[in-house]
Design goal:
Elements: H1 10-31, H2 72-83, H3 91-106, H4 119-129, H5 136-157, E1 174-179, E2 182-187, H6 198-213, E3 218-223, H7 245-264, E4 270-274, E5 278-279, H8 281-284, E6 291-295, E7 299-301, H9 315-323, H10 325-332, E8 338-339, H11 340-345, E9 351-353, H12 358-369, H13 374-406, H14 410-424
Helix pairs in contact: 1-14, 2-5, 3-4, 3-5, 6-7, 7-13, 9-10
Bound molecules: ligand L4XM7KOE.
Ligand L4XM7KOE binds near residues 192, 195 and 249.
Length: about 425
């Protein structure tokens, strides 16, 4: 008999059967046009009026009645802790706190987007909206974790370090550092091959927003561990809220559009340091980077058809433009995996380096580039990219809305179930 705690022993199988069962139930419910019981209207707590100043987000707010449960006390303590912070955490973190607070107490963003000139409320709305369908409990936990990270970093960790080398607080799934004119955003879930969870998409959006405004010349995206990224974390499909799978797909499409939008709009030179294999969305957005440096160990794989899905990251436009329609079709329709050398020959990768000297060579190069006049680099990027921005946003919207439908298809659901069944050896 296998031991009870073996990786694929009975308890694990039961858990995975639960996940797969949940997916099937969600999909079946949709197929018969039914609704889950918990999606039926229940007593709605009064919505808290939006916080009107960015100065002290969330702190001015009272705990809504929706924030019930075991960690309610932790949540209240965290709100009190924020008032005691010695250092101003900065607007990015405040926006994140605000967004998590709203999500934890009210759920997904439910108010109309403020007008373009209402800058502060628009930024707050965008931060909240970017949380998509993140469950209230997760938002509450993330709020507590974020505050705890802020408290400990303001107490000790950043003391004594020069400003430029400080690790930015407030991120859990990425590590953001700035040094010598380069801001580095490192995907940090190496045990899961840097698969992108919903939280990670949101943190990357916030990190890019922060990097676009800091004083660095160049921004780098890279991965920790042996992978650059294995793309969308497929557990994003199992986290179905009570509102149902359609609502999840709708919110995920918004999240996807915001995520890709932050690459389209990024104003400074953006460099991918591809430290290992890249899959799915981590490959497609490379078409929106200014430089792509890859180790010769990297591979580039977009198995969309295998997953019952379709291209995103504007790749339906950038890939044919970069490599021609036939080569783009091989990757995007037929899921051909490219080696780093092949990706370089197709123009997706700028240069390939031997793995043994990859980090040294790339960072030496980037440090030299970061000393070039910043404004000239920004303006040059703007000239190159601005002509296509509108088009890219339109393509992004179209790809996201097609995927919203795809995620509800039996082809996609079956592919996701296969992944989990194989993982659980069902
Ligand atoms: C209802 C709608 C909701 C939709 C929400 C969508 C949000 C936006 C989506 C945007 C569209 C994006 C599309 C894509 O990116 S498509 C690509 C998706 N990625 C994959 O299909 C890769 C899946 N993973 C693998 O094939 C292999 O893990 C891989 C080849 C990457 C590595 O294999 P290897 O054998 O070397 O390592 P392991 O498989 O043992 O991996 C180690 C652990 O990491 C877990 N893992 C890795 N990648 C993922 C992933 N993408 N999603 C979830 N989990 C992943 C793997 O399961 C292992 O975990 P355990 O140690 O727990 O077993």
């Amino acid at each position: 008999m296998p031991p009870q705690n073996s990786a694929h022993g009975p308890p694990f199988r039961v858990a995975m059967a639960g996940v797969v069962g949940r997916l099937i139930r969600c999909w079946c419910r949709r197929a018969v046009g039914g609704r889950s019981r918990s999606a039926l209207p229940s007593g709605h707590p009064a919505l808290h009026p939006g916080c009107c100043s960015l100065k002290v987000p969330a702190l001015q707010l009272h705990v809504s009645k929706t924030a019930m449960g075991a960690s309610q006390k932790d949540f209240e303590n965290a709100m009190n802790q924020v008032k005691l912070l010695k250092e101003d955490p900065g607007n990015e973190v405040k926006l994140k706190l605000y967004a998590l607070y709203k999500q934890a107490t009210e759920g997904p963003c439910n108010t109309p987007k403020p007008g373009v000139f209402d800058l502060i409320n628009k930024a707050k709305w965008e931060a909240w909206n970017a949380l998509g369908s993140l469950p209230k409990e997760t938002a509450r936990q993330n709020y507590v974790d974020l505050v705890s990270g802020l408290s400990s970093s303001s107490d000790s960790s950043s003391q004594g370090k020069p400003e430029a080398e400080r690790k930015q607080a407030g991120y859990e799934t990425v590590v953001m550092t700035s040094e010598e004119g380069i801001t580095k955003i490192m995907l940090n879930r190496p045990a899961k091959k840097n698969a992108l969870t919903e939280q990670m998409y949101q943190e990357i959006i916030l990190a890019l927003e922060a990097a676009s405004k800091d004083d660095s010349a160049i921004t780098v995206l890279t991965g920790n561990g042996d992978y650059y990224s294995s793309g969308n974390d497929l557990t994003n499909f199992t986290n179905i809220p009570p509102e149902g799978v359609e609502a999840k797909a709708k919110n995920s499409a918004i999240l996807l559009r915001n995520f890709v939008g932050s690459f389209i709009d990024f104003p400074k030179p953006l460099v991918a340091v591809v430290n290992g294999p890249a899959v799915g969305i981590s490959v497609t957005v490379l078409g929106l980077f200014d430089l792509v440096y890859a180790t010769d160990r990297a591979t580039f794989h977009t198995p969309f058809s295998h997953l019952g899905q379709t291209p995103e990251g504007c790749s339906s436009y950038t890939f044919p433009k970069i490599m021609g329609p036939a080569k783009a079709a091989e990757m995007l329709i037929f899921g051909k995996k490219l080696t780093a050398g092949e990706a370089c020959a197709q123009g997706l990768v700028t240069e390939v380096f031997p793995d043994s000297s990859f980090q040294k060579e790339v960072w030496t190069r980037l440090k030299a580039y970061s000393k070039l006049p910043q404004n000239a680099m920004r303006i040059s990027k703007q000239i190159i990219r601005s002509q296509e921005k509108e088009k890219l946003h339109a393509i992004n919207a179209k790809e996201s809305s097609i995927l919203q439908e795809r995620w509800l298809s039996s082809e996609c659901m079956n592919a996701i179930m296969n992944f989990f069944s194989q993982k659980a050896k069902l």
